[in-house]
Amino acid sequence: MTLADDRAAVATAPAGVPHPRLSLNQATIKYATLDEALAVAAAAGIQSIGLWREPVQAVGLTEAVERVTASGLRVSSLCRGGFFTTSDPVARREALDDNRRALDEAAALGAPALVLVAGGLPEGSRDIVGARARVADALEALAPYALETGVTLAIEPLHPMYAADRAVVSTLGQALDIALHFDERAVGVVVDAFHVWWDPEVMQQIARAAGRIASYQVCDWITPLASDALLSRGMMGDGHIDFGPLTEAVTAAGYTGDVEVEIFNQHIWDSPFDEVVGQTVRRFAATVPL
C-alpha cells in the first residue's frame, strides 16, 4: 500500500474499544470546559484524561475533584508547572509558590505527575546556561515537597525552536542531566514524541530514562509549520513521526503508564469535540503499538 493508502486506511478505521492506556490530554480539545472534556472522553470509552490547571481552576479544585471522581476517569497528569528561569528574586519566589500549589492540585486530583515547562530566557538575557542552572535550583527547592505530595515533577524537554521563549531544556538528555540528581519519585521526565523525535540520541536517552519516565505523550509533526509554531502538532498519522520505535523504546525502559494524546492545532480545536475524540481513538489504535 502507498503512504496515501495507509493514511486513508487509518482515517477510516473503525473506532472499536479505546486502548486502556490511551489518555486524552485536555489540550487536544482546548475549548472544552472541564465538564465537556470529562463527558466526551467517558462517552468514547476512554479511561484517562490529562488535565490543565486553568479549566480546573475555573470551577475550583474541590468541585473539580468531585467532577473527576464522578466521571470515573483517572487523571494521567496535570499541566502545567515550571517557568523557573527568572533571575528576579520576587518572581522566583512566586514561581516556586505557584508550583507548590500545582503539586497540591495534582495530588488532590490523583495525578501522578505535574508536567513542567522549564521557561525561556528572561527578557534581555542571552545566558541560556545560567537559565538552565536556575531550573535545576528550582527543582532542588521543590523536590522535598513533591515527595510529600506523592506527585512527580516531570520535566518536559521542548523542541529547540522553543528555547528562547518557552523552555531552555531542549533535549531528553538535558532533562535527564537535571532529573538524575534527585529521587526518581520526586523528579522525572516527559517523553513527548513531538519534541524528541528528531533527536539522533533519543533512543539512547530513553533507555537512560528507565525508571524516570513520568509521562509519554504523542502527536505528529506536520509540515509546513504553522505561522505559530506552537500549533504545528497534528493527529498521529498526518505527519512525519514513526511512533513504533519510540513507543517500543519507552516500553523497554519500563514505562507502563497512560499515553497521552496532546495536540495543539487550530483546525482540530475548531472541530466538534466528539469528532476529535473519535479520530483520536482510531489514530491511536493505528499508530501507537502498545
CATH class: Alpha Beta
* CATH architectural group: Alpha-Beta Barrel
Which stretches of 5+ consecutive residues score pLDDT under 50?
A: none
The CATH H-level homologous superfamily: Divalent-metal-dependent TIM barrel enzymes
Name the structural class: alpha/beta
> What is the arithmetic mean of pLDDT?
95
In CATH, the topology is named TIM Barrel
User: What is the CA–CA distance across the termini?
Assistant: 23 Å
The rough form would be described as globular
Total helices: the number is 12
Key attributes of the depicted protein:
alpha/beta, 290 residues, eight-stranded parallel barrel, TIM Barrel, 16% strand, 10 strands, 44% helix
Structure notes:
Strands 1-2-3-4-5-6-7-10 form an 8-stranded parallel β-barrel, surrounded by 6 helices. Helix 2 runs parallel beside helix 4. With 290 residues, the chain is an alpha/beta fold. It has one domain: Divalent-metal-dependent TIM barrel enzymes (TIM Barrel, Alpha-Beta Barrel), CATH 3.20.20.150. Helix 2 links the parallel strand 1 and strand 2. The protein has helices spanning 3-12, 34-43, 53-59, 61-71, 89-109, 128-149, 172-179, 193-196, 202-208, 243-252, 266-269, 273-287; strands at 22-25, 48-52, 74-82, 113-117, 152-155, 187-192, 213-218, 220-221, 233-234, 259-261.
Topology, element by element:
Elements: H1 3-12, E1 22-25, H2 34-43, E2 48-52, H3 53-59, H4 61-71, E3 74-82, H5 89-109, E4 113-117, H6 128-149, E5 152-155, H7 172-179, E6 187-192, H8 193-196, H9 202-208, E7 213-218, E8 220-221, E9 233-234, H10 243-252, E10 259-261, H11 266-269, H12 273-287
Parallel strand pairs: 1-2, 1-10, 2-3, 3-4, 4-5, 5-6, 6-7, 7-10
Antiparallel strand pairs: 8-9
Helix pairs in contact: 2-4, 5-6, 9-10
